[in-house]
Design a protein that fits this description.
34% helix; alpha+beta; 112 residues; four-stranded mixed β-sheet; 4 helices
Length: 112
């Protein structure tokens, strides 16, 4: 029961996500002809995908059936016509921080 919901999937190692990017994804999925089956992600000007991924409610149900180690890439590849690549500026959605040295550098840059 309950009303359908969308989900925003974001990994913890991409810390520079801005509220502006999230808002742009929400606006973009709402503008689709079929938002319930939409898959919206930020991309660089060159088309490289980033995070987060916004899933319409029918896609949430589909992901709930995934195996624990199954990548979300499988969802994108099985529904190419549902994917909306939204170009966004800045490094936030694309910058992974996976090592202590990267975290130290990032913290130093943000303090300056």
């Amino acid at each position: 029961g309950g009303s359908p919901f969308s989900a925003l999937v974001h990994p913890c190692d991409v810390p520079l996500l801005s509220k502006e990017v999230v808002a742009a994804l929400v606006v973009a999925i709402d503008a689709l002809d079929s938002p319930e089956s939409g898959l919206v992600r930020p991309v660089t000007a060159g088309g490289r995908g980033g995070h987060p991924l916004l899933l319409g409610h029918s896609r949430v149900k589909e992901v709930l059936g995934f195996k624990p180690d199954q990548p979300l890439r499988d969802l994108l590849e099985s529904h190419p016509d549902s994917v909306l690549d939204l170009p966004v500026p800045g490094p936030g959605p694309f910058l992974n921080v996976n090592h202590p040295e990267q975290l130290d550098l990032l913290e130093s840059l943000l303090q300056g």
